[in-house]
Amino acid sequence: MKIFSDYSLNEISNILADFPRFRAKQVFDAILQGKDYADTTLPKSMIEKLSMDYILKPVSILKVLISKDGTKKYLLKLHDDNIIECVYLKQDYGNTICMSTQVGCRMGCKFCASTSNGLVRNLSSGEMLSTIAVVNADNGKCNDRNFTNIVLMGSGEPFDNYDNVVRWLDLITDEMSFNVSERNISLSTCGLVDKIYEFSKLNYNITLCVSLHATTDEVRRTIMPIANRYTIDEIVKALKAYVRENSRRVVFEYCLIKDVNDTDDDIHRLRDISRDLFCHVNVICLNPNGGALRATTRKQALDFVSRLNKVGVSATLRRSQGSDIEGACGMLRAKTLKENK
Ligand code: SAH
Question: Which of 2, 164, 191, 278 is the most buried (most CB within 10 A)?
């Protein structure tokens, strides 16, 4: 089976060449509104024919958890019964959708629940587009855009699914589609240096974030296996190339882990790492996922940030939303998989 949302409006027009022209737009609108065949006004005979080859709605809502702060966590079912997560965050400056790029992940970061069962498969560009469509429709009128920002910070490593993510970027920013401004999209990578260089050349105006989480390669290797492939120096060099090409400020994500990466020396090394780079450091408190790693307290985290600011590093502590609903990466999916076993 093929998935309609993997195709652009032009491509759908070609697929539907035997039908009246307006049918392609009708199918395309149905995709954007998160509809299945039965919710459309397409003729029955056409639905019968199309549904033999094409899935219209590859993503559906299995469960929604709503946090005290209004954050909504979605457990979504794919057409092949795989499960992914998506989070809808209500914010003063516009709502944000945090979405997954893979089913599972193979990067193996110690603190992250998404990776505990490894990688199952990549999401296609259409599955990612339909994720947005389905969550959008659940948060207002399906033909309005009910979000401003998208962050690729759910399960999976976007640059490990490079081609589909780049194709999705074209689909989601298309003015015939959701017309999301590139400036309102953030992509977070654990630091696949080769892909950072490749992506730099495409000149998308998105915010590139790198999960740093340590200030020495030694410590980074103990929590992030990718550090065995690329050093922090190599990451910084690649980010400088990104800033040169795109004039966009890059972001380091730095998840504070008690007695691992929260010392005075870390503050000074973070200053050195960010010295000649147009960047911001987003400090996050670890959301413990049952492993041996412990969180730094919020008070210590605030202190860490203010000391970073004092030595000249642009840094803020990221507000943690939805922690009462397994808000961090992959936690709800991991819990559901365990319960289903
Ligand atoms: N693979 C990408 C995107 C994944 S997650 C990446 O590594 O950047 C988005 C962010 O959440 C990453 O910075 C990730 O390191 C962080 N994260 C994952 N699990 C976490 C946890 N338990 N507590 C705090 N942050 C976590």
Answer: 191
- The average pLDDT across 101-122 equals 94
pLDDT in tens, 173-211: 999 999 999 999 999 999 999 999 999 999 999 999 999
Residue 327 has pLDDT above 60, yes or no: no
Query: Do the Cβ atoms of 210 and 239 come closer than 8 Å?
Result: yes
Q: How far is the CA of 202 from the centre of ligand 1 (A)?
A: 25
Q: Which residues does the annotation mark as catalytic?
A: 85, 329
Atom 15 of ligand 1: nearest residue by CA position: 211
Ligand 1, atom 1, lies closest to the CA of 157
Burial-class residue 323 by CB neighbours within 10 Å (0-12, 13-18, 19+).
Answer: middle
The pLDDT of residue 325 is 66
- pLDDT given for residue 292 in this prediction: 87
Ligand 1 centroid – CA 112 distance (Å): 6
The predicted pLDDT at position 328 comes to 61
Contacts of 233 by beta carbon, 8 Å cutoff, 6+ apart? none
Strand partners for 99: 86
Cβ(102)–Cβ(161) below 8 Å:
yes
Ligand 1 probe mutation, 255, 286, 333, 335, most atoms within 8 A of CB: 255
Pocket (CB within 6 angstroms of ligand 1):
107, 109, 111-112, 153, 157, 188-190, 211, 253, 255, 284, 286-287, 289, 328-329
